[in-house]
UniProtKB/TrEMBL annotation:
<keyword id="KW-0813">Transport</keyword>
<keyword id="KW-0050">Antiport</keyword>
<dbReference type="InterPro" id="IPR044880">
    <property type="entry name" value="NCX_ion-bd_dom_sf"/>
</dbReference>
<dbReference type="GO" id="GO:0012505">
    <property type="term" value="C:endomembrane system"/>
</dbReference>
<feature type="transmembrane region" description="Helical">
    <location>
        <begin position="643"/>
        <end position="662"/>
    </location>
</feature>
<keyword id="KW-0597">Phosphoprotein</keyword>
<feature type="transmembrane region" description="Helical">
    <location>
        <begin position="696"/>
        <end position="716"/>
    </location>
</feature>
<dbReference type="GO" id="GO:0006874">
    <property type="term" value="P:intracellular calcium ion homeostasis"/>
</dbReference>
<keyword id="KW-0472">Membrane</keyword>
<dbReference type="Pfam" id="PF01699">
    <property type="entry name" value="Na_Ca_ex"/>
</dbReference>
<feature type="transmembrane region" description="Helical">
    <location>
        <begin position="135"/>
        <end position="158"/>
    </location>
</feature>
<dbReference type="Pfam" id="PF03733">
    <property type="entry name" value="YccF"/>
</dbReference>
<keyword id="KW-0106">Calcium</keyword>
<keyword id="KW-0812">Transmembrane</keyword>
<feature type="transmembrane region" description="Helical">
    <location>
        <begin position="668"/>
        <end position="689"/>
    </location>
</feature>
<keyword id="KW-0406">Ion transport</keyword>
<feature type="domain" description="Sodium/calcium exchanger membrane region">
    <location>
        <begin position="571"/>
        <end position="713"/>
    </location>
</feature>
């Protein structure tokens, strides 16, 4: 903290030089904390302009300067949010951007307040109403919704008894054609009207004063609103039609996200305006100069579209995840009801199942973050280790089971391609994309190189362990080719061979069962042990690498208790239900992937490396981009590193151990292409992250290398067995 740094004008040179070095090293390792929405503040010392870098490091030993670490002070809104922020910096914990508690209304920005405000606030003139979003509303909804109101109004006039509602629909037809700059009010019932309905006094404008014609009391309309004959006619003939129309508008506008104000407009009109007595509804323009009538404002809309609605959340759930949840239900119903593929083909069902994995991954991540933030370290570590890779493992295990039942080795090769694709994508594409997008806003980004070095060391170890059986088989295996042709027509000449591979089953499988398989089991035990040692190192003995401090003081106005979106039990139920739905979607994906693998002209390598590997990681990629935009590249890098480490140290050993209890065609022997791509990616990533700083150019290099590898996989021939 800056206040703890001694003054450079101390009595002795020792404290003076030490403070300068501390400030210099802290400036070098300058990493911003979670800002903005997370409410996390980073207090970092600044280097005076007079202090130069060479003079500091020349006067002090290298070990003093190298011992300087990032000093990050997190100021959260409450204890639960502080625990979540702290978990983001812990190795092995899922990094999560979204809030797990409700943010106080007074601390939100004006843009966010406008997103959550009801359409019942009258504001001053804010510019022209002729905007692109308003014109889009007119073209998509306004014209036919207004026409429908005119037809309903005509129908209500024909019934005679529904004439008051016919007049209301006529007025609303003009409103919904262009609702911007207009207001719908619920006016108060005049005293004369109340006396009329009670049977006391006369219905006269002279007794009650000047009464607007629009809501002038009518004694013949009945003693109560719900007992009127006109209300019965309205609820039977007019209201259901308009409810269906507004429901269609509401659903369509909500799915488009930027038009959510239109969805709110339709929902409020259906639930409030259309259920009011006609005489209590007043429609007027805001530019009118007369004194407004006393009454409640029901609807007042200025803009039909707002591009910031991508930030909108429902009970802590992002609007994109909310909109994709019905897709999961459609996928499950269509997949299990239409088994013979009468309605749709396998390609459509496979695509739907794969897209359904994205919202389920979001719900699983949100549930894990909620449970971890409200629990102690042990519970959080267990939940993260257990469910952190459940998305990928569910798909891999169902694919291996299906391949074992059909005797098809292609599924095992696709799983290996997906594992390699996840590893390469999280090492190259995820951090590279975050660097590019973050570099657009920030010229140079810095991160904690020591924490990244721990993940890199574990990644080197894990990659070496995973591919050790493959290298062993290359040394001791027997090269077998499917077919060979003599090119020179000479028995001693050159031969051109196809479908060559190293056979480990020569001599009744002695090499594999006696040497390769024991090595595979040994590696599968050592890698999780190394992962646990890494957890113990970073979270117990060397926590100073991260040096995360939670401030005792809270942000201004945060004196209240935390209001969590999901309690621990609710998060646990959502976690289990999402896992079950994930298993069902993975089963449908593997069920309908077979025609794609057999009939597609694209290499199975490419399908596994791209679609099957990166689609489940899209929520993590979005989190990484958000952290990078806040100049918190450390978390963006850790997201990719942690996923890659979990692939090698948890997912692959679990798949190997699964084959012990359920024999499959999965062996820990990868193709040469997987080995070279993975090792080259890890080496390049460590070279880029060596100096603890980066920019958009280095990110572009990582992304370009990733696309080059994708091109190699695209043009590669199909693996043996497919």
């Amino acid at each position: 903290d800056a206040s703890k740094v001694p003054d450079s004008r101390g009595d002795s040179d020792g404290p003076r030089r030490g403070s300068l070095c501390d400030r210099h090293c802290a400036a070098i390792n300058n990493v911003h904390g979670d800002l903005g929405d997370l409410g996390c503040h980073l207090h970092r010392p600044r280097v005076p302009p007079a202090v130069s870098t060479p003079s500091c490091c020349q006067q002090h030993s290298e070990e003093v300067c190298e011992s300087c670490v990032v000093k990050t002070t997190l100021t959260a809104e409450n204890a639960v949010e502080a625990n979540k922020l702290s978990n983001n910096y812990k190795f092995g914990f899922k990094k999560w951007k979204s809030h797990v508690t409700a943010r106080p209304w007074e601390d939100r920005s004006e843009i966010v307040k406008e997103l959550y405000s009801d359409l019942n606030v009258i504001r001053g003139p804010g510019g022209s109403m002729l905007t692109c979003g308003n014109v889009l509303y007119l073209l998509l909804f306004g014209w036919w919704l207004s026409l429908l109101y005119i037809l309903v109004a005509a129908m209500m006039f024909i019934t005679v008894m529904g004439a008051p509602y016919g007049q209301l629909c006529w007025d609303l037809a003009g409103y919904f054609l262009w609702p911007f700059g207009k207001v719908i009010q619920k006016v108060e019932v005049p005293k004369s009207h109340q006396e009329c309905e009670a049977g006391v006094g006369e219905s006269s404008a002279l007794l009650g004063g000047p009464t607007p014609l629009r809501w002038r009391p009518r004694c013949w309309m009945g003693t109560g609103y719900w007992h009127r004959a006109s209300t019965a006619v309205w609820l039977c003939l007019g209201y259901p039609v308009l409810v269906l129309a507004h429901g269609l508008v509401c659903v369509t506008a909500w799915l488009l996200i930027v038009l959510i104000p239109v969805a709110k407009l339709s929902a409020r009109a259906t639930s409030r305006v259309l259920l009011l007595p006609p005489e209590r509804v007043l429609i007027r323009r805001l530019r009118m100069t007369e004194v407004p009538l006393e009454g409640e404002v029901i609807l007042c809309c200025y803009r039909a579209a707002n591009p910031y609605y991508y930030k909108y959340a429902v009970d802590g759930i992002n609007v994109f995840a909310v909109n994709l949840l019905p897709l999961v239900l459609v996928t499950l119903v269509l997949g299990y009801v239409d088994s013979p593929n009468h309605l749709t083909g396998s390609a459509v069902k496979f695509t739907l199942a794969l897209l359904s994995i994205m919202p389920l991954s979001y719900y699983i991540g949100m549930a894990i973050a909620s449970i971890s933030a409200q629990s102690n370290f042990a519970v959080g570590a267990v939940v993260n280790a257990t469910f952190g890779s459940i998305t990928e493992l569910t798909f891999y295990i169902t694919a291996l089971i299906k391949g074992s039942r059909e005797g098809n080795r292609c599924y095992a090769e696709v799983v290996k391609s997906a594992l390699t694709g996840t590893l390469v994508g999280c090492v190259l594409f995820v951090p590279g994309l975050c660097m590019v997008i973050g570099g657009i806003r920030h010229q140079e980004q810095r991160f904690n190189s020591r924490s990244a070095g721990v993940s890199s060391a574990l990644l080197f170890l894990s990659v070496g362990g995973v591919f050790a059986p493959t290298l062993f088989s290359k040394v001791y295996g027997k090269l077998v080719c499917g077919e060979c042709h003599n090119v020179t027509q000479n028995p001693l000449g050159h031969y051109l061979c196809h479908n060559c591979h190293f056979d480990l089953m020569d001599n009744n499988g002695t090499l594999y069962y006696s040497h390769v398989q024991p090595l595979v089991y040994t590696v599968s035990i050592l890698l999780p042990a190394a992962y646990l040692i890494g957890l113990f190192f970073t979270l117990k003995t060397h926590t100073h690498i991260y040096d995360i401090h939670i401030s005792d003081c809270h942000m201004p106005g945060h004196h209240h208790s935390a209001v969590v979106h999901w309690s621990r039990w609710r998060a646990l139920v959502i976690l289990l239900l999402s896992t079950l739905c994930m298993s069902a979607c993975a089963d449908l994906a593997t069920e309908h992937i077979s025609p794609i693998l057999t009939n597609s002209t694209i290499s199975q390598y490419f399908i596994g490396v791209t679609v099957l590997a990166m689609v489940p990681e899209l929520p993590e990629i979005v989190n990484g981009i958000q952290f990078a935009l806040q100049n918190n590249l450390s978390l963006s890098i850790e997201i990719g590193n942690c996923i890659a480490v979990q692939v090698c140290m948890l997912q692959i050993p679990i798949l190997v151990l699964f084959t012990i209890f359920y024999p499959t065609n999965f062996t820990l022997v990868f193709s040469d292409l997987h080995v070279y791509a993975s090792m080259f990616s890890v080496v390049l990533m460590n070279y880029i992250f060596m100096d603890g700083k980066c920019d958009y150019f280095q990110g572009t290099v990582l992304v370009m290398v990733y696309f080059i590898l994708l091109a190699v996989y695209f043009f590669a021939p199909s693996p043996s067995g497919c």
